[in-house]
User: Fold this.
Amino acid sequence: MYILGIESTCDETAAAIVQDGRRVVSNVISTSVKEQALYGGVVPEIASRRHCEYISATTEQALADAGLTLADVDAVAVTFAPGLIGAVLVGVNFAKGLAYGAGKPLVPVHHLRGHIAALYLTHPELKPPFLCLVASGGHSHIVQVEDYTRFKILGRTVDDAAGEAFDKVARTLGLPYPGGPSVAAAAKTGNPKAYRLPTPHVEGKYNVSFSGLKTAVLNEVNVANMKGQAVHVPDLAASFQERIAGILADKLLLAAADTGAKQVCLAGGVAANSRLRSLINDGAQKLGAQVYLPQLKYCGDNGAMIAAQGYYEYRAGRTAGLELNGLPTLPIDYE
Ligand code: KG4
Ligand code: ZN
Assistant:
């Protein structure tokens, strides 16, 4: 079964064809990230406008790369929540038009469920149940994936998402957007023990909090400025990365130990972070759990992950009519 997946929740306009939820046949991503970087973050209206311009050609390219036409596709899957609403609506309405015109089923996909499904593209043998940390620019959840369309949230951030913390710290350090890759690059030559940064206290055993950590980085910069000095950017980037990766890994591994998880996974844009990957890899192996990490090309937003999850949503009978609306927020465990 071929599913066309369409994604437009942030600054990537993406379309892909995936066969049976596992095999990527084509995967095309157009992005406005360079333009967004001029503003130090995503400007929602610019994102929406670029989606409008790119979405048709991106989808045509995905079909062409697969050597298919719309008639060969079994269903059109689209991210309908959560995300920048003006951006989400472009994808939703485009997918509706395609589905209607071609007489194909329309399958709504939750963005974070899509990030988790990216793991199926990298590891064809992976099946639920598994424990997964989903960390992106907008969300940080520890999720029990009970089945392909059944999720239980064990923990979440009480303030900033992990990716958002990277983005804000990058800005504080004068590093470019997106902050995750630029902080990670700066951290390469830094000493992770140079700055003592706090592990913020948080209510809830598996919850995380990053706003105190972000403020601590800002304080280091302000204190240095007041003394007429400058912070050592690679050292501060490395110290921040070490702390945030440590907090995320500790919470995931605690949840894994408590629940006796046999499979431990990582997903979302922040899953590209090599320090986080290695902490989770080593920690989960010590617990005797199997570790699954997504390939770097499937960590960030893409259409293949939406097509993969779309396959499982479709098989569960979760199709939508043409009244489908986009939503800015929606919990991953929605019914
Ligand atoms: O999943 P994603 O592509 O989009 C959202 O759904 O938000 O995640 C984007 C986030 C950004 O905040 C970006 O800074 C972060 O993922 N990110 C990283 C890395 N690569 C991207 N964070 C840490 N280390 C990275 N290597
Ligand atoms: Zn995402």
